[in-house]
Design a protein that fits this description.
This is Ig-like domain-containing protein. The protein has about 675 residues and is an all-beta fold. It contains no helices and 57 strands. Strands 28, 30, 31, 33, 35 and 36 form a 6-stranded mixed beta sheet that branches. Strands 11, 12, 14, 16 and 17 form a 5-stranded antiparallel beta sheet that branches.
Amino acid sequence: MHAGRRRRPRALVTVTTALALLVGPTVGVAPASADDPLPEPTPSVSAPVTPQVVAPAPETFFVDGNIAVGGSLDVSGRASDWQPTTGLDLTYQWVADDVPVAGATTHTLTPTADLVGTTLALDVTGTLPGDPPASATVRVPVGTVAPGTLRPGTPKVSGRVEVGSTVAADPGTWAAGTALATTWLVDGTPVSTADTLTLTSAHAGRSLVLRVVGSLAGHDDATAETAAVTVAAAPVWPTPTISGTVQVGKKVTARPGTWPTGTRLTYRWYADGRAVSGADASTFTLTAAQRGDRLTVKVTGTRSGSAPVTRTSAARTVAAGVLSAPRPTIAGLVGGKAKVGKKLTAQPRTSSWSPRPTTLRYRWKIDGRAISGATSSTYTPKAKQAGKKITVTVTGYRTGFTAKAVTSSGAAVAKPFTRTPQPKITGEVRLGSTLRVTRGNWDPDPSSFTYRWKVGGKTVATGRTYKLRGADYGKRVTVTVTAHRKTYLPTSRTSDRTSKVKLPRPALTREGTFKVGRDIKPGTYVAYAWGDTWCTWSRRSDARNTAKGELANDYGYGQRIVTIKSSDEYFRTYGCGSWYKFYPVGGQQSRTAADGVLKVGSQLRPGLYETSGPVFADEQCHWTRLRSFLGYTGPQGRNVIARGSGDAGDTVRIRSSDEGFETFGCRWKRIGS
C-alpha cells in the first residue's frame, strides 16, 4: 500500500455483547378451566439490562502509510461510528498473522524487519465502563508487510587512479547495520572484492568502477556505483642529482627534477649510507665528518591519494675542503723595508680566511730559502741578510681540509743610514716667494731624495722648491726629505716650521705719481685701506694731476684692487697706503665687509647675495659687478657689468664670469647659488 492513501478495510465486524438476564422464580398454578375465574394477578420484578457496545464496520476505518519495513502506518476512525458514540475507551493491538505484535498498542506502527511477509491487521476495542463493563472489538485488515527500501550511500574511490597507486573503497554512508560488499570493475569486469586495489600497468587506459552492494535485514538489497574513471599511466619519478662542489666546507644542492604537479618534496642526505643528523633540507653544507664518504640524497615525493615515492641520487665522493686565505703581511717594516735588528711580525689575517684555520705554522725565508729555526710568528733580520728579500710563509690547518700555505710579499732587508741631517728651508716666507730646501750631508750618500712640502699641515707639493701662494697666507711651512739607497732603509727627516707666511714686500709704500715700468711694474695690485682712510688711485697717460691725462680711476674704503697695464705711463695713488702684488688671500668667502673690492672666484664665492642695508645711517648702499680691475672711466664705463643701490633685503646675483665685486656702505651674505 502506498503512503498517503486511505482505504476502507474489508472484514466482518465481530461484536461481543455481555448480556446478563436476571429472571426471578416462577409461581406455578393449575390451569383453570374456562369457567374458572381468573386469579388475581401476581406482581413480578424485571431483571436489569446490561448496556451493549456496537463496533463500527472495518470499512469505516482509514489506513494511511506504507505497508513495508521502515514505513509509517496510521489507522484512524470516527467516534460517531461507534454505539454508543460517547463514553467509550478505545484500545489497540496490532496483529501479524493473527499473532499480537509485542508492544504495538497504538493506532500507529512502523513495521520492523521481522514482520516481512506477515499479514498485518489492527484490533480496535471500544470499552464502556460499568459493572460489568461492555466492549466490542473490530479487526481492521492492513495488508502484507513488504521488504523496506534500502537507501544506498554514495561511494567514492579514494586515492589517485594511476598505475602504481593503491586506491581504497569509500562506500559512503549507509543505514546502521547494513552489510556492505565491494567489487572493483575494470572495463566492466569484476577484478577484486577487497577494500583496496593496487593498479598495475594492465589497468592503464581502462575504466575503473567501484560497486557497493548493501544488505540490511527486512530490506531489498541496494547497489551503488561510482562514475567510471580512466586509469592513468604511471607518473614519471625523476632521479635527483647533486649540484655544487662536493668537498668539505662547500654547500651542495639537491636538484629533484620535475615531479608531478602537486607533489610535496622532502629531502634526506646520507654519507656512506648513513643519514646525516639534521640534514633534511634541499641544501647541505659538508663538514669534516663527511670527508671521503659517498654522498647521496634521497628525495621523497608525497601526493594526496598516493603512496610516498622515494628516489635516490647517484653517489659522489666528498673531497677534502680547501682553505681560502689572503696573503699575509709583515708588520714592523720601515718604508716597506725590513730594518736590520728590528723585529718583524707575521700577520696571517686569519679573520679573512675561509673557514678560519685551527692551527697556523710559520716559516721565514731569505731570497726564497728557509731560515734555519725561523718558525715562529716573529723574526729579527741579521746584518748579513742586508740587500736580500725576506718573506714569511703561513700554513693553515683545519680538520677535513687540505693545508693551505700562503706567502707574503718580499721586503728588502736594509741597513739604516748612519748620518741623517735635518733639512732646512731657505727663502723669504712671503707670498710669491720661492722656498728651497737644504738637505745636508747624508752618510752614505743616498741615490735619490723625495720631498713633501706641507702648509698648515697639509701636503701642497713634492718638488725640491715651493712657491708660496695666496692660500698659504698666515700659515707655516715644513718640508720632509726622504733619502733612498739600495740595501738601505728609506729615511725621512722633517725641517722646522717656518714663521707665518706674510704678504709680499710692497711694490709701493707711499703716495704720489709713479712711472710704470720703472717705479712699478705692470700687473695687479692690492691695497688695504682699512678704517676711515679714503683710497684714490688713477691710471694715467701723463704725470700731471689733471682730468685730461686720466685713463681710469677708483676710490673707496677697504680692500682696493687695480690692474696696471704695460701701456699705462703713470700710476697715481693717494690715501691707499702700501700696494702689494695681488694674491687672493683668505680663500673663498660667502660674506663681505661693508666696503671693498673682492676678486670673484678666489675671494668671493659666486651666487645670490642679500644685503642687510646701509651700515651707516647717513650713507647709502651701493654695489658694482666688475669686468676687470682697470678702474672706472665713467658711471657706465666698459669696466662695469652692472651697478645699483640697495636696501635691506635687496639681492644681487654674482656670476662666476664676473672678475670682481665692489660694495660700498653695506654688507652682503650669500643665500643661494
